Amino acid sequence: MNTVLVIVAVIVAVGAVLYMRSAASSGAADQSGTVGYVTAAAWTFMALGVAEFFMPWAAGALEKEPWVASGQFGILMSGNYVIGFLVFVAGIALARTAGQRRRSKQVQTDSG
Amino acid sequence: MAVTSFKNYRVPTTFVIALIPAAVALNVVGSFINTTLKLPMFLDMIGTAVVAITIGPWWGALAGAMTNTVLGFLTGPIMLPFAACNVIGALVWGYGVRWGLGKTFPKFFVLSLLTALFVTLMAVPIYVFVFGGATGHFADIMTAAFVGMGQRLIVAVFSSNIVVSLADKIVSSFLALAVIEALPPALTAHLDIVKAPKMQLVLWIALGTVIAAGLAVFAANMAAG
Whole-model pTM above 0.95? Predict the structure, then answer.
């Protein structure tokens, strides 16, 4: 791995922690907007989608490795299966959230 | 301490923007240390654990997916399908802490074992079906040894991966706990997670590291023998 990139990564990590500490102590974090875990799930979907974009390239590159037993088609299909499984799990989580929100809104309406 | 339900907990955008890249960077650095020292671990989920525990499982999943996509370009495409393992690890850590498995050190230790188990269950099909059983990692030597003993490939991959994964997740969990201690209190105040005096924390981190090192030595002996 490129050592320069790792040094950059260390600087990013340390800088981010220092920034968070400064934002917390100055009160800037309290004034910023907030996001919930549904947004997180949505961003995760997008990150998995980006990973999916690169699966054909990955399958082509992996097939050339001498210790990889599978062929390009097998690697691609298996990669799709893995990412598809995660999207399915995330979909279930979001569906459950939607159901809970509907129920809590219903309860609020009934009690109001 | 009043604990906010993670479904109602909303994290300031400032923290998300800072913490996710920091976690990805931490994972990349961990992976680099592991590759350089040729350790029988992975160390690419410490940042994922930090994010999953502090701001939620799905943010951890995002950090995990981003990590493996980045590492796929830096170290080679082997890492790309293993994004699934990083995501599963984040979900187990995140939901585990929110279901009370972070309240005491023994429970947190059990959570790290559970994470190792779930990550291995996700990793084994990837090893077997995507790569045909080998990825060039240290664990391959153990897999070959188990196959040589007459085990089926899937059993051999599971056996070798669970040993490496246990060592890795114990170290990652306790290192993440140490990192969480260093984060601003505003970010961790909502968490119902172990708060220990510094020395006790160091003790538990050392214990976790020793157990993980023991497992690593066991793995090395298995591979050599």
Answer: no
